[in-house]
Amino acid sequence: FDMLPSVLSADLCSLRSDVDRYAVSVLVDFDTHFNIKKTWFGRTVIRSRYQLEYGVAQSIIDGMSEGEIQATVSELQCTSGEKLSTDVANLRSSLKMLSKIASVRRRQRDNSGALQLESVEVGIQLSKDKQSIEDILPKKPLQIHETVAECMIFANECVARRIAKTFPQQALLRRHPEPHYDRFDRLQACAEAKNFQISTSSNSMLAESLNQCQDSGDPHVNKVMRMLATQAMSEAQYVSLGSVDLADSSHYGLALEKYTHFTSPIRRYADVVVHRQLLAAISRGEDDHSVDSVDSSDLRTLAAHMNAKKRNADIAQKESMALFQTLYFQSIPANSHACVTTVIVYNIQDNGLKVHSPRFGLNAPLYLQNKDGLVVQRAAADSDEPIFGSGSITATKTTLTVTGVASRLSFSLFDHLRVRIELVPSDMHPPMLRYHLLSCDPVAVSGADRMTSPSMDMSRLDLVKAVAPRSEKIQKPAMSHVEQLISEHPECAEFLQSKEDTIYKLSLNFYRMSLVPPPEWYELERQRKLEREEALEQERQLCEQRRRQQQQQEKAVED
Fold it and tell me: What is the Cα–Cα distance from 374 to 395, expressed in whole angstroms?
């Protein structure tokens, strides 16, 4: 769902072709070598010439014919002749120039140590009637996606520098601290398995190392390495510039000294705050550094609140995708070929492997030892079929060996294994997806596992509408069971005080209740805030007194 009603997010606050829209813009003049000559910030009125989908824009850059462009772009369908040729040429030229500028900016950031990280994004493909989930497909990255992202990063950087110059103590920035280097253990183990050298001494050295992690025989290797580097990263945070050291306000992943969020005010509150700060900075001028009316402690509290909400949103997004994946595998037979896929080993554990599925974007454990202590082994000497039996497991950082009664299996990092994805129900937890090994031997690297897929036209609202009825169907049996119990045993009704139908849901409610602080906490927090405000006011007065004394001394020297 959109944060704002669709009349705002899809219409009034959205750029539409041939419609005036109020905006706050960053205008940049470049020289012929794409060096910045001048940057201007201010309120504008924008009238877009075209409203293009990403795939259409990419096709135009790639050489889509004039006739195809006219048939695809609605704004050109009533144009013909020489004007059509001129408009198409201008549109293609503008897109190519924008892409070239973005490429130059990206190269400049790469030279400064920007990291190209990896996170597999998957989309849900609905049936034609949008009543069921047909498939889970990795999203196909396009050059135009990177172009738009780079332009947004550039605008955010420009705004961050501007507000930091005017409000050196109160600018709201997006900070990405350096990672804890002990979190690179998985990455280093995978590098050792392929004889790669990984340097984590700086972001530039890490970026250069990842670029060298290439295996001509396995295109998945570099993606897995970048995925592990992504998992090792620290969490980016909103900060008030005055609350952190200047050296700690940079963005490690983007290799930028100053960064903020400015380009998405209809979906992030931080961008709204930054818009207000930018407009205040414009009204003051670049040389006005007077203390702002916004309390620094309030801004720090706001930044902490936004960080908490961002974490919650990330968790909700992760759980939402897990829900859709669960519903998909619940809708197909367990023995269906659609449940069989190839996974890549990226971590060794004492009782199995951690594996990644490029096909479904799933990271999950592959257990080689069950709860009874039995281990995976061959069903027969000449068989590839695994069964569980007596034996032991020996694990190192890069390999795992399973010794059975009559077989010995070896697994290594980056092995490709054939597995079946199974849905494991639970009374205490939501259903979980788990891998089941189908072949004792690694399989050859092939293109069977799709890394990319055609782009899909599907709105999140349609997806939720399609999943909701299925979710209701799943819940009905449990609810009808409770109702049946009450009807058969009325004397039990007084004990059924909870509306929840599983222990997991009941425990979750107890957990949520435990998060509510006691009443005295609010009074204590209010007193702490007042103390912080008094300390900051004293500090402000002391700084003002020192500034006046310095001005008096400078004036005395001039006299």
Answer: 16
